[in-house]
Amino acid sequence: MGNITFITADVTKITFQPNQFDLIFSNCLLQYMDDTELPRVVENILRWVNVDGHFFFREVSHLTPGLHDTFKNEEPCICRSTDTYNGLFNNVSIPVDGAEDEVYKFSLVAMNQVQCVKEAFSVEKDFYWIYKKIRCQRSDMSG
Ligand SMILES: C[S@@+](CC[C@H](N)C(=O)[O-])C[C@H]1O[C@@H](n2cnc3c(N)ncnc32)[C@H](O)[C@@H]1O
Questions:
Q1: d(Cα 79, Cα 96) in Å, to the nearest integer?
Q2: Domain count of the chain?
Q3: What pTM does this model have?
Q4: Over 90: is that where the pLDDT of 57 sits?
């Protein structure tokens, strides 16, 4: 395919122009961000994705015995609760240029367990989220 660009980079350091992507997809990446990096990366993703574009991510919520115990001492990952991700994505926003009363934020489209992981490994703590970037009043920031 001639229309694919592959980039290998540190997501905490890479920059893109705002509103560049219809979809940003991440599979088990955010768990490698520490608590300082995570909100910055999420804010950047909100910046990079188009309005009405989507961010899909999947994360293992808390360590799952048998699956992640095997490497938890070797990998610097932080398995966060679903509430932590929900709270973070509810609260992140960026200003809209020229409209002081408005912000861009994420609106939840779907969140659920990853069914194939649940069925194959009986793992209950593997979740995906789909968020959409929306423009809204600053006063609408809750929910
Ligand atoms: C569990 S693997 C998932 C790999 C891939 N997303 C997949 O679905 O197969 C986590 C990946 O995150 C990458 N990673 C960790 N920290 C990163 C960072 N700061 N920037 C970019 N990638 C990172 C690791 O190199 C590793 O490839």
A1: 32
A2: 1
A3: 0.90
A4: yes
